[in-house]
Amino acid sequence: MEKIIVHGGKRLKGTVHIDGAKNAVLPIQAATILASEGQTVISNVPLLSDVYTMNKVLRFLNIKVDFNESANKITFDASSDVSSEAPFEYVSKMRASIVVMGPLLARLGKARVALPGGCAIGSRPIDLHLKGFEALGAHIEQHDGYVEATAPNGLVGTDIYLDFPSVGATQNIMMAATLAKGKTVIQNAAREPEIVDLANVLNKMGASVIGAGTEQIRIQGVETLHGTDHAVVQDRIEAGTFMIAAAVTKGDVMVDGAIAEHNKPLILKMREMGVSVIEGDDGVRVIGPDKLKPVDVKTLPHPGFPTDMQPQMTILQLCADGSSSMTETVFENRFMHLEELRRMNAQYTISGRTVLMQGPTDFNGAEVAASDLRAAAALVIAGLVASGYTQVRNLQYLDRGYHDFHKKLAGLGAEIKRVNVDEDDAIILNQSLKNHL
Ligand SMILES: CC(=O)N[C@H]1[C@@H](OP(=O)(O)OP(=O)(O)OC[C@H]2O[C@@H](n3ccc(=O)[nH]c3=O)[C@H](O)[C@@H]2O)O[C@H](CO)[C@@H](O)[C@@H]1O
Ligand SMILES: C=C(OP(=O)(O)O)C(=O)O
């Protein structure tokens, strides 16, 4: 079993470099299915387990995938025959595999993809994706845990209104519409920077996508798409996670490569708490104050406060001097990290979708288990300010979205180590933690 062990109390100082965005690269990997001619070369690719899973899905679909890890570059060749089925083995590992459906349907007129199911943070249905495909003329059936979409005569452009600005549905419909006959308009589209990055790649491949980043995206269908080169946008969630780690430890950190514009709600809330955030062309510098002021936060689709920063933000709020609230409106079950934090001395009450937190918290080190990706990051951040030793388990979640998280924190002066221990070793380790750091 792997664990991260943190000895809290160090102020983080120095520069940390941010990788390409997980949530941008995954749909871009899927978009390479659309290129029936030439190769697509994607650079600034983060070395994350989700990226490897998406590569496996694509290889299963008969696409050539060559990952040059030392150069953070993947070359895709989808010029041969592509197959239409994404099996349960991969989709169950990573929900984002569902975004292969739009490109497959566009290119082949059919797609058979395992239904992704929910995860720890919520039920996560795909009804909006499927309604979009149906509006484009696809016939949808569900059998044996798979969803099958067929459009033997091709898709036809239309106006689609999303009941909620779903990121995945916007991406899937946008990709499906690139090869549809005529024009598609997506109303109430998601506006995340990762949508813009995907639209940029599609346009370089020969598509005509206008308005990405606004609530109305217009796509004029074209006959074929071809390969291209593209560098993935920086990860605003990884950047935000380090910004919070810097602030909560009263540190002084340059988050190199962070794009301030993509993290505006977080930056403004951090300033409200008394954190000094200096925006530059090459990154964002964060200086934590001696005392944090309490603040109320509500998650919303972009440009609102991102749900993927919610667990990390609650650590900062718990350290503030007074009571703060967090309301989670995007996912129905994203407070699971708080149960673990209670074991580290966090004081809070949950009422529906809102948690009321009482700070400042004197976090005590404890052994805690992550329930999902951002919960894992939040628990490690709590460990950075806790007295004594914190051990975080279930690192498979962390590896979905952060490459070398512990090494980056160690580079900023944190006392942190990742160890691989069996259960017996763990008992000995608990008795002699100091020798391990
Ligand atoms: C790989 C990736 O990019 N993941 C991100 C993406 O996930 P993802 O694309 O899954 O998130 P969505 O924006 O689709 O989901 C937001 C909400 O809409 C609901 N919903 C969504 C689709 C649908 O058909 N029906 C429906 O009800 C979901 O259950 C959820 O409550 O956006 C989320 C919201 O910013 C982020 O937390 C994830 O990190
Ligand atoms: C929820 C997340 O990702 P996914 O949609 O891939 O589960 C996340 O990145 O925090």
From TrEMBL:
Q: Which coarse location class applies to the principal site listed for this UniProt protein?
A: cytoplasm
Catalytic activity as recorded in UniProt: phosphoenolpyruvate + UDP-N-acetyl-alpha-D-glucosamine = UDP-N-acetyl-3-O-(1-carboxyvinyl)-alpha-D-glucosamine + phosphate
Keywords for the protein's UniProt record, in alphabetical order: Cell cycle, Cell division, Cell shape, Cell wall biogenesis/degradation, Cytoplasm, Peptidoglycan synthesis, Pyruvate, Transferase
The record's GO molecular-function terms, alphabetically, read: UDP-N-acetylglucosamine 1-carboxyvinyltransferase activity
Which EC number(s) does UniProt give? Answer: 2.5.1.7
Residues bound to UDP-N-acetyl-alpha-D-glucosamine are R95, R124, P125, I126, D127, L128, D308, V330
Amino-acid positions noted as binding phosphoenolpyruvate in the UniProt annotation, renumbered to this chain: K22, N23
Query: May I have one GO cellular component term?
Result: cytoplasm
**Record flagged with keyword Cell wall biogenesis/degradation:** yes
Domain named Enolpyruvate transferase: residues:
7-409
CDD domains attached to this UniProt entry = UdpNAET
Which residues are responsible for catalysis? C119
Any Gene Ontology biological process: cell wall organization
Report the top EC class in one word.
transferase
Report the subcellular localization: Cytoplasm
What Pfam family is a match for this entry? EPSP_synthase
Q: What is this protein's function?
A: Cell wall formation. Adds enolpyruvyl to UDP-N-acetylglucosamine.
* Name of the molecule in the record: UDP-N-acetylglucosamine 1-carboxyvinyltransferase
The scientific name of the source species is Lentilactobacillus kisonensis DSM 19906 = JCM 15041
Q: Corresponding gene?
A: murA
